[in-house]
Amino acid sequence: MADSGAAEAAAAAAPAPAPAPAPAPAEGSVIAVHSLDEWSIYIEEANSAKKLVVIDFTASWCGPCRIIAPVFADLAKKNPNVVFLKVDVDEMKTIAEQFSVEAMPTFLFMKEGDVKDRVVGAVKEDLAKKLELHMAQ
Active-site residue 108, yes or no? Predict the structure, then answer.
């Protein structure tokens, strides 16, 4: 019978494999932001590429947020040159407070670090109109 203690010790001494890097988000998708580091990276990349950023401030308990989510995802698919971010206000309170988000959903339109516009509420038409307006600028 083999000594299982020796096998366990050898396994414990072996270095753990490095975690795989997170895959880069695909263009045309909504990117969920789960940390301040992720937020900084996505915003800096969009700013340096001079891309429009649309941020969906949402909450898991928000009914209208769940209703508008597929619309937001569809806009992301149709507009791959725009960065679409999703921020859960309960998970990322700091970011929600930084942008004075008080109602969900709130959609912020940013370009080169400046807030250009916002839509408060799950109003599909307003969201589409503002997106079209700011993409043209």
Answer: no
Chain segment 75-85, per-residue pLDDT in tens: 999 999 999 99
Between CA 45 and CA 94 the distance in angstroms is: 20
Residue count of the chain, please give it: 137
- Catalytic (active site) residue 62: yes
Residue-wise pLDDT tens digits, 105-125: 999 999 999 999 999 999 999
Which tokens sit at 103? 């109602």
Q: Is 80 helix (H, G, I), strand (E, B) or coil?
A: coil
Give strand pairing partners of 52.
111
- Of 31, 46, 62, 82, the catalytic one is 62
Query: What pLDDT was estimated at residue 18?
Result: 43
Q: Which of 33, 53, 54, 65 is catalytic?
A: 65
- Integer CA distances (angstroms), 65 to 49, 114, 137, in order: 29, 24, 27
